[in-house]
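cron nightly-structures :: item 1 of 1
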Amino acid sequence: MRNHPLVQLMLVFTPLSLLAFGGGQAVLTDVRHQSVDVHHWVSNSEFLSDYVLTRMAPGPTTLIVSLVGWKAYGWLGAVTAAVAIFLPSSLLVYGVAHIWERQRGAPWQVHVERGLAPIAAGMLLASSYNLMRALEGGWVAWAVALAVTGVLVFSKINPLLMILAGALSFLAIGHFWRLA
């Protein structure tokens, strides 16, 4: 039973659901590792393409697990993966929200909130770094990613313009060099 494909999806994505502090981006590295390296449900290239697709769609980063499930086991895999990534954390937040609200302003709560914020930020940074390591396109991809990061950190330029600029950069460069 443990080797059943749908059970494997549940066993991989349920624990990740409970670790997604700061949002799905925080566990993206683990989702990629399990989906590409461990279970081979998708290739690295498919994962990156699916990631871009889910970032263009409204909704959380963890939508990618539905596409992984779909590619691995069809519509039943998509539903199973979605339930595994969304239901456990939703139930946990629902349960904790009642306690959290009753304790609003308690000293322990203030300290927990202050402690969780840098942990969530660190998990997001680690995921971003690991996603960059998986990028296809070599040094050009790194240069574009770092340039976009710098522009968005130090200006108020619309991120959609950065997406357009990145796409045009790769289109132009692709004519002259074969990207890694």
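cron nightly-structures :: done
Helices lie at 5-19, 28-38, 44-56, 64-102, 107-134, 138-154, 159-176.
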